[in-house]
Amino acid sequence: MMTRELPIIAVATAPGKAGVGVIRISGRNLNAIIGALFQKNLLPRQATLLTLHEVDGQAIDQLIAIYFAGPASFTGEDVLELQCHGGPQLLELVMKRCLELGKIAGLVIAEPGEFTLRAYLNNKIDLAQAEAIADLIDAQSEAAVRGAARSLQGVFSTDINNLIEEITQLRILVESTLDFPEEEIEFLESAQARERLKKVSDQLAVLRQGAQQGKILREGIQLVLAGAPNVGKSSLLNRLAGEEVAIVTPIAGTTRDRVKESISIDGVPINIIDTAGLRDTSDVVEAKGIERSWDAIRLADLVIFLRDARTPDEEDNFLRAQILQAIPPRCPVLELGNKADLLGLEVKGTANPETLYISAKTGEGIDDLKARILKMVGWGGAHEGVISARRRHLDCLERAAEHLHQSAAFASHGNISLELFAEELRLAQDQLGQITGKLLPDDLLGKIFSQFCIGK
Ligand code: GDP
Ligand code: ZN
Questions:
Q1: What is the mean pLDDT of residues 306-317?
Q2: Does the annotation flag 251 for ligand binding?
Q3: How many angstroms is it from 274 CA to the middle of ligand 2?
Q4: Which of 45, 124, 275, 329 is most buried, most CB within 10 Å of its CB?
Q5: What is the DSSP string of 350-372?
Q6: Where K(+) is bound, by residue (predicted)?
C-alpha cells in the first residue's frame, strides 16, 4: 500500500492549454515548503497573489496561492493550491521548482489517487465517497454526474451506515442472551428479532435496487449476442444501433461483422458484443479483439440467444447448452426467434410462449425487445435518485443479503441457533463495512486507488 508520510505534489488540472492550471501540494506540515517557495507565511483560506522565482531570481509565474491548514482541508493534511497560468510547459517549470525547493521537506510527486487516498485515510471521506469522486470526474452522462454527486454527498454511505447500525443493535441484543440458551425461543419473540431482521432485509433489498440502477448508469450493460451463423445477429445489431446510435465504436474483427457497438436505450448505455467475431485466428490484431470480446462475455449482464424462428426448438439444444456453459452463473438469457416476417401466422400460434419473436429486417417486435432488455437487467426506469455504484458495491450488497438470509434461517421455527444467527449478522455487517471501507482488505484498497489519475 502506498501509505507514506512524505508531502506530495501534482498538477490537478487536465493536461493541455487552459486559462488556469492548478498545482496541489499536500503534507503533514507545509510551513517549510511555503517558506522556501515564497519567503513568507500564508494565512489559511486566503487567496494571495505571489510570484515564484527561479534560482537566479527570474520570475517563473505570477500565481494565486491558497493554503488550507490541516485538518480542515480536502486531504486532512496541510494543502497548498497554486493557481498558475495554464500552460503545460509553465506548469512543468513550476512543478520542477517546487520539487527543488521542497526537497528538504521530502516533497515527492504524487501517485495516482494519492490525494483522495489521504482524504480517505484521514477520515475526510469514506471509500464509497472516494470512488464517487472518480465517478464524478469520469461521468459520461448527466444522470451519471447526478448519481456520483449524490454518492459523494454521502447518500449511499448514510444508507449503508444506517443498515450497519440496525444490524449492530440486533447483534447486541442477541449476543447478550447467548449465555442463556434455554431462553432462545422467548428471546426471539420478546426482542422481535425476526421482525427486525425482516426490516433490515427489506431495506437492503431497496438499497440493492438503487445500487443496481447506479451501476447500470455508470458502467452500462454488457449485452452479448449469441447464435448460429446466419440467424441475423449482425442484422439485429444494426437494427438496434441504427435506431438509437449514441456512440459507435466498431472494432475491426472479421471482414463482414462489427464485433462491438455501443447504443443507448432510454438513456441507458448498452454495449453489444456480437459473438460472430469469436473464432480461432492467427491474426494478432484480430486475436486481441477476440480476447476483449471474451472478457466482455465473462462480464455479460445479459445474453441474447438469437435463433431462426423457423428452426424447431430442439434443433438448437446443443448450442443452447453451449451458451449456458460459457456465461456467468447469474447472467440471464433471452431467447429470441428472428425472421418472424417469414413465419406463417399458424406457426406463430403454436410457437413457444417463452420466445419473443422479432424481425431484424422489418423491425417487428424491436420495441418489445428493448423493453424486455431493460427489464431483464433490472433497470427500474428511474434516472432520479440514483446513486453511483460499482460492481464491487453490488457484490458486497449481495453477499450481505445472503448472510441475512442465512441468519433468518437460524431463527426459523424448529431450527433455532442464536449463535449462528449472530454470526451471520456479523458477516453481513462485514460485507456492508467493505463498501464504506471499514474492514477492507489492504490489497483491494490499492487496487481501487490505482485506478485514479494522477492529481486526483
Ligand atoms: P448473422 O450471421 O447471424 O450475423 O446473420 P446476418 O445478420 O448476417 O443475416 C443472415 C441473413 O439473414 C442475411 O441475408 C439477412 O438479410 C437475413 N436476415 C436477418 N434478419 C432477418 C429477418 O428478420 N428477416 C428476414 N427475412 N431475413 C433476415
Ligand atoms: Zn454476423
A1: 87
A2: yes
A3: 7
A4: 275
A5: HS-TTSEE--TTT-TTHHHHHHH
A6: 230, 249, 251, 254
Question: H or E element: which one contains 333?
Answer: strand 333-338
**Domains of the chain listed by start with CATH number:** 8-125 (3.30.1360.120), 133-216+387-450 (1.20.120.430), 220-376 (3.40.50.300)
Which residues have CB under 6 Å of ligand 1?
Answer: 227, 229-235, 276, 338-339, 341-342, 359-361
Spatial CB neighbours of 164, under 8 Å, sequence gap ≥ 6: 429, 432, 433
User: In angstroms, rounded to a whole number, what is the distance separating the alpha carbons of residues 22 and 247?
Assistant: 32
Please check if 252 is assigned to a binding site: yes
ipTM given for this complex:
0.99
- Mean residue pLDDT across the chain: 85
State the average pLDDT over residues 317-323.
84
pLDDT in tens, 122-149: 999 999 999 999 989 888 777 788 888 9
Average pLDDT, stretch 395-415? 89
Give the type of residue at 315: E
Q: Taking residues 177-206, what's their average pLDDT? A: 79
- Written in H, E and C, the secondary structure of 116-182 is HHHHHHCCCCCHHHHHHHHHHHHCCCHHHHHHHHHHHCCHHHHHHHHHHHHHHHHHHHHHHHCCCHH
Distance 339 CA to ligand 1 centre (A): 7
Residue 417 is classified by DSSP as: -
Closest residue by Cα to atom 25, ligand 1, is 339
- Cell (9 digits) for 7: 508531502
Distance (Å, whole) CA 27 – CA 259:
48
Per the listing, cell 447469474 goes with: 330
CA 61 to chain centre: 39
211 is in an annotated binding site: no
The Å distance, Cα 214 to ligand 2 centre, comes to 32
Of all ligands present, the nearest one to the C-alpha of 278 is: 2
Residues in the chain: 456
272-299 mean pLDDT: 70
Q: Does the reported pTM lie above 0.95?
A: no
Helices (H), 12-141: 31-38, 88-101, 114-121, 127-138
Question: Could you tell which of 230, 235, 254, 319 is best to mutate to test the pocket of ligand 1, judged by most ligand atoms within 8 Å of the CB?
Answer: 235
Amino acid (one-letter) located at 389: A
Residue 143 is assigned to a ligand binding site: no
Q: C-alpha grid cell for residue 211?
A: 445500487
